[in-house]
Amino acid sequence: MALRGCYRLQLQLRRCLGCQPGWGRRGIVSCIDPSVGLTEEQKEFQRVAFDFAAKELAPHMAEWDEKEIFPVETLRKASQLGFGGIYVRPEVGGSGLSRLDTSIIFEALSTGCVSTTAYISIHNMCAWMIDTFGNEEQRHRFCPSLCSMETLASYCLTEPGSGSDAASLLTSAKRKGDTYVLNGSKAFISGGGDTDVYVVMCRTGGPGAKGISCLVLEKGIPGLSFGKKERKVGWNAQPTRAVIFEDCAVPVANRLGEEGQGFNIAMKGLNGGRVNIASCSLGAAHACILLARDHLNVRKQFGELLASSQYLQFQLAEMATRLVAARLMVRNAARSLQENREDAVALCSMAKLFATDECFAICNQALQMHGGYGYLKDYAVQQFVRDIRVHQILEGTNEVMRMIVARSLLQA
Question: How far apart are the first and last CA of the chain?
Answer without folding.
Answer: 59
